[in-house]
């Protein structure tokens, strides 16, 4: 099933590790492709929808 702007996934973005690609390449000594992989690793899947996220939060409350 394709996703759209009206039906997005919910993700967590680790902004602490989110630098500009050129800075990652320089600081970490990575190639362009390695830097892109590193950048993608800063994004973690959380839920298929906002509703699913809210339901999981409600369920975890007890």
From TrEMBL:
<protein>
    <submittedName>
        <fullName>SMI1 / KNR4 family protein</fullName>
    </submittedName>
</protein>
């Amino acid at each position: 099933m394709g996703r759209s702007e009206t039906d997005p996934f919910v993700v967590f973005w680790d902004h602490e590790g989110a630098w500009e690609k050129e800075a990652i390449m320089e600081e970490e000594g990575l190639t362009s492709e390695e830097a892109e992989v590193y950048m993608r690793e800063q994004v973690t899947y959380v839920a298929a929808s906002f509703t699913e996220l809210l339901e999981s939060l409600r369920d975890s409350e007890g």
